[in-house]
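Long-time lurker. I teach an intro course on protein structure, and each term I like to show students one example going from raw sequence to a predicted 3D structure in token notation. This year I'd like something fresh instead of my usual example. Would anyone be willing to generate the tokens for the chain below so I can use it in lecture? Attribution to the forum is fine with me.
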Amino acid sequence: MPDALDPLAAFRLDGKVAIVTGASVGLGRRFARVLHAAGATVVVAARRGELLFELADELGPRIVPMPTDLRSADDRHALVERAADVGNGRVDVLVNNAGISRIGPAETESLESFEEVVDVNLTALFHLCQLAFQPMVANGGGAIVNVSSMLGLVAATPVKQASYCASKGGVVNLTRELGAQWARKGIRVNGIAPGWFRSEMTQVMWGDDASEAFVARGAPIGREGAEHELDGALLFLASPASTYVIGQTLAVDGGWTVI
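-- Reply from a regular --
Happy to contribute to a lecture. Here you go:
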């Protein structure tokens, strides 16, 4: 008799070691919970270490707090080294979620502001991918999930965010290129492009009638996303369920980018 079909088994991450950046609040905190619930040990990184330790106290020893400033190359090295130590040399999953934004007209954005956004959203992400490469290859491969944005696929205006759009568009194409370069080395690089979700970055939108109407009008589904509506995309791309998916960025945006 053939083995019973268990399509859900491919979504498990038992025994895997994952890194999630920007894990102190919002979507990143949710991502850490999802990977933990699927069986992974999760090294959670963010500047606000006290929030990471709260999450570890709540969920238990498979959450490993690592206070990290992603603007620091030394901190990025230390983060991946910590994950490799936890995994006895292995890092299986990297979720590059941390990001910042600046809102305002492009003609008045300072060069320093533009550079900071690109540094955090794109350069630091690239460096973490590089750092994770060796422990992933040494242990047969892994999965990298880069969190871009639907604003890496389309313009943000009337919400003016030139540096954010540039950095997130860079993440989309970097994901394609790294996916192509590293596929035969066993590393799957893919991405998620969230639409409007409630988070610290978007908090100015909520409670404002005009902003909420703008979101409802622009998304064919007629509303913003709920936190749990990214769970499936994340787990699919982070797990063996997506072993034939390379260099793709999945828009989870209520249809915003299809019209």
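Some talking points for your students: Residues 111-138 form the longest helix (28 residues). Strands lie at 17-21, 41-46, 63-67, 93-96, 142-147, 187-194, 249-252.
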